[in-house]
Write a structure and sequence with these properties.
mainly alpha; 8 helices; globular
Length: 184
Amino acid sequence: YLMIVVALLGLSLQRRWSKSEDARMAQTDRIVFWALIGALGHASGHFLIAHAKRHELYPPVDVPFIEDLRKGSMMEAIIKVGPGYALFWIPLVKTYMMNTAKDRVALVALILNAAGLFLPIKFGFSYTQAVLFAGQSVDQLMLSNRDKGFEYMLWPLFTILPNGIFAWIECLTCTSGVIMKKHG
């Protein structure tokens, strides 16, 4: 809950103070905005996992999520998968693929969400980090040389460095750890 509150507070402050006329500062403001959206999406993902754990909505960690979805109705599947798509996948994919159009981001998020359903839950954190970093690499490589300035260097600093540390922690502890098993 704390991360959601901090991200929302950061977004409100960023929106209030980001009225720069300078093009470089405007791009930096955009980077900070999407980094905060990513933090909000990440926190929402953990909130959804914790909620699912509390209400026993997930199958055992060795079972692909799709196996659990096949047992229920289509509406149950939408209720289980929809919030993660809207609150986690779309914000995070847009954060990592900041230069990609929103409709394409929604399509990529849908594909990534659907593909992740076929993996055992215990690989969820590793899968997510891998596809997000791959998406970011593609997004950054598609930029023209004139768009690669100081702000281009800032983006990995705001995303890869902190998320690389957290990705390592999540992959090693969250999926198999006691905290994840009980609280998400």
